[in-house]
Design goal:
With 202 residues, this protein is an alpha+beta fold. The protein is built from 4 helices and 7 strands; from the N terminus they run αβββααββαββ.
Length: 202
Amino acid sequence: MIHLVAPRVIALVWRILGIAARGAAHRSRRRARWVVRPRTGVKFPRRPTDTQSVIPASSQPTVHPCTSRFRAPADLESLRFFRGALAALIDRRGTCATRSGDMLLALSEAVTNAIEHGSRLGDEVEVIITWDATSALLQVVDHGSGAAPLITRGAPPAPPATALRGRGLVIIHAVADTVAAEAVGGGTRLSMVFHHPVLAAA
């Protein structure tokens, strides 16, 4: 009788041990895929390791539009702030050097015009920068100087060679791919589009 029961008991024990081992392995795989964030108790996927599958490069999402807004007092001292903000974004996006220079030049001229001709004491100037995979949109918004905004279509005529001022819009039209101005409230919004090759995504 003992000889008949012993093999059955041994087989049953091995079967129980096998089930326990498979359950432990399954739990280990689940822990490898998820991590519990301390304090919150919320589970988040772990970063892929060398042994885990990753999303193919062809399935990676494209660069989506990203917008940044900056405001500063309508004072020429703010020009450095706006240029620095744009330069930092250009460095992050990896825009080519030629387009970078055009964008910084156009922004300087547009902000200078907004401060000197489109603002009053105590006003602010706003700069809005929108990026996507192939272009950048720069917008400079002022609150107006009290006079009716001067909206022109197309590039204005160049001033005489002896003139010391008046070349801001001429320069902007020369370096930007598209320029548009529109009245916003009592002020003006100048929009400038620059097509560029992006060397590195943000």
